[in-house]
Amino acid sequence: MHSPDVVPPVLAGAVPLAYVEREGIVESVHLGTLAVLDGGRLTGRGDPDVPFLPRSALKPVQAVALLRSGLDLDGELLALACASHSGEPGHIDGVRRILDGAGLTEDDLDNTPDLPLDVQAGAAARAIGTTPAPVLQNCSGKHAAMLATCVAAGWPTTGYREPDHPLQRLIHDTIADLTGVTPFTTTVDGCGAPLFGSTPAGLARAFARIAVAAPAAPEGRVAAAMRTHPWWVGGTGRPVTRLAQAVPGLIAKDGAEGVLAAALPDGRAFAVTVLDGSPRPLPVLAAAVLEGWGAVTEALPAATRVDVLGHGRPVGVVRPAF
Q1: pLDDT digits (tens, 9 = 90+) for 146-181
Q2: Per-residue model confidence (pLDDT) at position 2
Q3: 3-class SS string, the chain
Q4: I need a surface site. Which of 160, 175, 302, 308 has the fewest CB within 10 A?
């Protein structure tokens, strides 16, 4: 636990990233860190090498590790392995298809039971008395793919979440390889899987490597799946899905506590962490970076605008601070 007199590095390295305006008045400010890679040059705002927890933004990197271990997935099901899905019927069916392909069932899943993130899917589940279940939780695609990898590699499926399991050791090493940063800590993510610490700069480097990889390489297969099937990475109306749909070729993944990483096919990449944990400014920050690169499409403004509402109507916006 930090002493009250000691400023944590993530706070000391944070700067204003976005302003929330209501009728022209700045109502609040989101602080954080932004790492931007462009032509191999690292820039951004705040300290891009500050230690942080990337949360689910690491899933594409983890998926690369699974493919390196022999997982045989591509297309929409590989995108689902990278997902924090909304729990819509197609997502749940996809998780079951991954499990069935490996000769497994929902009983083999060891992620945290939950109900779907999607409002309509969650309401439908509650209406028929459905109780929280691992297959409905937003990380079930990743966990199903982890289990399928264990089957393919001949590793035990029991204990697959343990940090000393061969699967998790390989994921650890793959994160170190792609980010260029040896994970500084291993804790537990919300779904129960190990969560490895990195830096915003490291996460941006990993996304850049995935984005430019050869099509047949594990990294290239992950990039192709995410580009082609953005709905499977998030869900209907989800900001990360709308962002990827608005910019052809972009790979993007969000994470809990205000994390987002993305990369273009030419290797330009960024990673952002919002200090207060809010995802609210992430679309706006993504748009600001992409606009700075000239990667603007007709669909981008509508996909990334974040309105501030008053009595249900827009009375302000979230604006980037740079």
Answers
A1: 999 999 999 999 999 999 999 999 999 999 999 999
A2: 56
A3: CCCCCCCCHHHHCCEEEEEEEECCEEEEEEEEEEEEEECCEEEEECCCCCCECCHHHHHHHHHHHHHHCCCCCCHHHHHHHCCCCCCCHHHHHHHHHHHHHCCCCHHHCCCCCECCCCHHHHHHHHHCCCCCEHHHCCCHHHHHHHHHHHHHHCCCCCCCCCCCCHHHHHHHHHHHHHHCCCCCCEEECCCCCEEECECHHHHHHHHHHHHHCCCCCHHHHHHHHHHHCHHHHCCCCCHHHHHHHHCCCCEEEEECCCEEEEECCCCCEEEEEECCCCCCCHHHHHHHHHHHCCCCCCCHHHHHCCEEEECCEEEEEEEECC
A4: 302
Q: What whole-number distance in Å separates Cα of residue 320 and Cα of residue 322?
A: 5
Average pLDDT for consecutive 10-residue bins of the chain (322 residues)? Answer: 70 92 97 96 96 98 98 98 98 98 98 98 97 98 98 98 98 98 96 98 98 98 98 98 98 98 98 98 98 96 97 97 94
Q: In this structure, which amino acid lies at residue 259?
A: V
Q: Where are the domains of the chain?
A: 9-320
Q: For the segment 123-135, what is each residue's pLDDT rounded down to a tens digit?
A: 999 999 999 999 9
Q: What architecture is the 9-320 domain classified under in CATH?
A: 3-Layer(aba) Sandwich (3.40)
Verdict on whether the full-model pTM lies above 0.85: yes
Burial bucket for residue 3 (CB in 10 Å: 0-12, 13-18, 19+): exposed
| Contact indicator for 121, 87 with CB cutoff of 8 Å | yes
